[in-house]
Structure formats: C-alpha cells, structure tokens
Write a structure and sequence with these properties.
Shape: globular
Order of helices and strands: HEHHEEHHHHEHEHHHHHHHHEEHEEHHEE
Distance between the termini: 59 Å
Structural class: alpha+beta
Number of strands: 11
Strand content: 5-15%
Strand order of the largest sheet: 8-9-10-11
Radius of gyration: 27 Å
Length: 463
Amino acid sequence: MPATHERGLEQLAHYREKIEALATRDGLDYHPVDFELVPNTFMMEVAIYGLPIRMPHWSFGVRYIHQQVQHRMGGSHIFEVVFPGNPNRAYLVTDNGLAENTLVTAHVLGHADFSKNNTLFARMQQQVGYHIVTEAAERARNIQAAIEEHGQRRVEMVLDAALALEQHIDVDQPIHRHDYPAYIVPGPDQKPTGFRSRYAGLPGEQAPAPLRRRKAPIPPHPESDLLWFMARYAPDMEGWERDIFLAVREESFYFYPVFACQIMNEGWASYWHARLLREADFLPDDLYVDAIKSHSDVIRPFATGHDIALSLNPYHIGFTMWEQIIEKEGMDSALRIRAEEDDYSFIRNHLDESLAEKLQLLNYSVTDDPSSGTQIKIEDTNMDKLREQLVAPKFNFGAPHIQAVEISNDGSLTLRHDHVTDGCGLDLDRAQKVLEYIVLVWRRPISLETVDGDGNPKTLTAQ
C-alpha cells in the first residue's frame, strides 16, 4: 500500500472520530456505524444487488452492466452505501478522495440518526432484525444449497417469480402473519323480541339448531401481499420454494423505508453533512473547500444551464426543505417531523409555494408527436397537483396495485388490478411476462383482470 494512501486512511479515521464527536454534541442519536473502505467494483456490486451478499440472479448482472456503462460514461458516481441496523454498515469507496470520504462520513451519520429515530424505519427493523447483511448472506447460502440440490434451472425459475413480485407486499401487515381463518365465524345469535319471544317460550317449541360452520373463501378479502399469499397458499409449492418467496418478501420489507423516505432521509443526511463540515474547524481549508464542492454536486438539481430536468434529485429537494423547516420552525420541530413522517406526508405537509418556486417545480405533460418528436408542455403551478405528482411514483413501491381475489375449486387463481386507485392501465406486455413467471410456481391457471391504456376491460391469462 503506498505511503500516501496509508496516510490518507489515517487522516480519514482521525477526522471521522472528530466528526462523530461533533454529531453527538449536536444531538444526533444513532446506533454505532461500522465504516469500511472498499474498491469501486465492490461498491458497484453492493449498489446493484442492494446488499453486499444477496441471492444470485441474472437480473442483477443486467443491472450491473448498465451501471458500469453509466459509470464509465460519467453519468454515475457512487459516494457511499449504508445499511441501517445495529450496528449500521457503511461502505466508502477507496478511489474517492479524502475530501469526498470525509463528507460521506458526516452524511452517513445523518442517515444513521434518521434510521434509528424514524418510526417507519424503526418498525421495519424491529420486525426484520438489525443484522440484515448477515441475514442476507445466510439466505444466499441457502439459495446456493438449493441450487446444488434442485439444479440451477429450477431455483432460477422460482427466483424469477419471486423477484417479479418483490414490490407486491403489504407493509401494513406484520412480517410474521397468521394464516387466514379456515372457517367463517358465525355471528352471535339474535335473541327474539316482542311476540317472537313469547312464541319461542311456548311448550314444545325447540331451540333453533346451531349454525353450521362454513369454510372460509381464500382469500377472505382482496389480498395485496402477493409474496406472502403465494408462499402460503400456492397448491403445489415445495417447502424450499416457499422459503425463497418469504426471503424475498422479508428483504422487500427491509428496503421499503429506504424507498418511502428517500427525500426525507437523503435531505436529512445532506443537511447534517453540510452542518458538520461547517463546524469542523479542524479540517484544513483546502480539504473543506473540496468537500463543499462535492456537497454542491450532491445536492444540485439535475437541470443545469438551459437543460430541462424531467426527473428530480431527492437530495436537492430534501436538503432545501429541511433547511427551510429548521430555519422557520426550529430543530425541535424538525426532530419531530423526522420521527413521525415519511415522504408522502413530508411533501404534502411541508412543500409550500415559496419552496416550489425556489426549487423551480412545475407541473408538465409529455406527449410524443410523430412529426415533431417529444413535446414537453408546462401546465400550471397548482400546488395540490404538484405535490401529488411528486409522491405518486412512490405508492406501492412504484408498482401497480394488484390483489389476489379468488382461488377456484380447481386451484386456478384470479388477480385483479386496482386500476381505480392507480388511475391508469397496465403495461400489458410486461404484466403478461410476470404472469408467465408466477404460473410456473403456482402450477394452476392464473388470470389477471385489468384495463388497457384506453381504460377498456382486459383479462390476461397464463397456464
């Protein structure tokens, strides 16, 4: 290891210790953080797989190639990956400079504070556990054992189906759910009143026969947790197949708060890395300047110069919103919001007109014209509509709301797309492909009721 690189690691460790002391002084409250410096290739794998070690699947390889191309073209720069838990696990890139990794250290402490104190994060971690990296490695070993026993093709078929449904969970249900009741519970007998009560008391009258139990339908109500439903009620799934579905489901529960609180979480971490760097008077001036340049890169909007951004930088939105909240309402209010809210309520409750103007947010529509190409039309600045456009992609993990509604006597399954809630139809080609994946493990016909892009009823089938 070159002497300059080794000195850089020693300096980073020294700065990290001092930044952690600043964070504690300023009131950040977090589980311990294990920092690890890793090569860029390893970091890219972590970013794609979502975890340092995860169940093997071809789709991750496709994502890796895409990310690698983006990185080589300068369109992707990974600063850090952090996994909430106790302890938190944070990975920094060895190829990044000392200034960048110093900034990232402060950024990670903001994430650690958020994940420990936010109600949604805390609830999910209590259910999933605080050692996701270790547990994911164990699942990967179980998958490898299944491959050795059942063959690569069979295991991959099950993973295809489970990962095609990884967004279809119900976070309002606990991870460890009870099965549906086997029978419909009869309601309490109603006592006769008036004349009927006198008639029932006449000699020779018999008490009504007790109600017979009836088998409950499956599901007893539309079920949104498709991974759990298929793992518990697929007619011919083997035990190891059910385990894979439940493993994918558990990881989806772990990742949900990251998705549902992205703007809040990244904005909170960005606010704290900027504040801690300002207070870190022990940093050399040139390192501080370089770190602040990295900060500007992190929180800038995607649009620069005369370009138009049709996607938004969550770091930029979150950082700007937290700055205003803390300035106008104080830190105590910010801590309460950090604890109680997610991106849905954060945007709806705290994105006001002044912030929208500062962030240059506008409602727009995009149309494809065969003669003139893609047309972008600025519509208005209606705040309610703007807020809903920002949070709409976050509902249900960004996936369409599909529910299991009936298992017929022959075991065939009916799914229904809640297009009223979604407000649109499905990508029919993609939906058909997903059906073809899951029918291989359900092993009975499956139908999906939906609408096409024009709102016309449509039923897709696979068998």
